[in-house]
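Model it.
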Amino acid sequence: MTTHTANIVNVFDGIIEFGEITVENNRIQQIKYIGEERVGESYILPGLVDAHIHIESSMLTPAQFARLAVVHGTVGTVSDPHEIANVLGVEGVKYMIEDGQKVPFKYCFGAPSCVPATTFETAGATVTAEDIAHLFTYKEVGYLAEMMNFPGVLNEDPIVMQKLVLAKAFNKPIDGHAPGLRGASAKKYIDAGIETDHECFTKGEALEKLKMGMKILIREGSAAKNFEELIPLANTYYSDMMFCSDDKHPDNLVEGHINQLIKRAIAKGIDKFKVLRMATINPVLHYRMNIGLLREGDWADFIRVDNLDDFTILETYINGEKVAEKGLSLIENIQSKVVNNFVCSPIEPNQIEIKAPATSSQLKVIEAIDGQLITKEFFIEPLLVNGNIVSNTEKDILKLVVVNRYSNARPAVAFIHSFGLKEGAIASSVAHDSHNIIAVGVDDESICEAINLIIREKGGVSAVSNSKKGVLPLPVAGLMSNEDGYKIAESYTMIDTFAKQQLKSSLTSPFMSLSFMALLVIPSLKLSDLGLFDGNTFTFTNLLQEN
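Modeled.
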């Protein structure tokens, strides 16, 4: 039995009183209130929850992710394992469950609803409706993960509808993914039983969906950042909102997690109890998570902070066990096993050449947007050298390449604006959602070298300059490292800095942004291993258009 004294934050009732919390057998046995809130005393409140994240995007296994997250007061996550499912199928989901069980952390995994995400790309596996029914029998699988195939919902595709029916039959919440969907289409999507969306990038879209009864997640990840746009809605709609990361690289996870969003929201003048409800109660109740909320009889999952303005995490407890203290993780450093699916051969520069058209034509270019997953498109006169269309660094038009990592096939090539590279190339085997190899660069030799570094390691992120090259291996499904999370964060920081300082990328997170340039379910123009894709019409499109 242990006793903890502090100012106790009752998020349910919106009150703070000084008192004692008694913990026995992993649960809160008693909460004894002694008197009014005391100045100078620390505060105890429920542990924090990330309401939607792909653990794989941290480049860490669940066991390593937990070590970093608890330092920031996170005690659990709502985790969609569709990244590894696209590589390894159901066995990948089971890997995440088993690895997460090795550490004191509360993972609520989803059954991936869209593997592969579309039929317009090559994935390493398929997750069927029967597979989803099987996954729902695992106690660790608490919901149907994001239904990205919103056209399938709107058109009542039989397979899509079967998955939704299954989730309802198993009484599982259904996560959504419907960027830009508005009006009657949004209503039909919601009426199908889909309850959340983390893809809103305008306040108007989020407000419309909230009024239709959907819960909105405010996302602030390494690439997609919607906090500033959406946080004003929390004043009124806090009961139906939560915080999430979606995708968070290891260096950013070392810096902070949901605790950062709480501090920012309170600094904007939003009532602290509304903010704390979004970060604790709302996700736990919506996803029926096995996480305590600081009530007698609950699991002893709570955090101690210095105050509710600075929000410095002093201690984190899970099931009564102290797992972090003053910035240090107390979770054991466990090296996870390696699983993978990576079969392709090195490529040569002549495989990614684009011959000049016979007639005068305009080049269709993807325009990446810093801090967003959506892209735009525009047309420009192509730069021709020796009869080939090549990158134009003066206008920041760079070659983009996707290589099928599951078999030897012809690479797909397009051109992209906004990466800002002045030399060399960067590449990654983290390329949502099928996780083929994606690369961007200023010349074919550098692009091939960056890609071949990843092929050599069977997964990773790489960067190549005129005088230097580097690769961070990701041997677990080509998505994650099985090494110490803090070491991987440091290594990632080095290669990210290399891309920005040596290669001159102008993006906040060039590797994270690159990983989404193959995500076909986010408009408007993306590149899969099968070709250039229009996310508005859900069809392939031509790289060139005649004048």
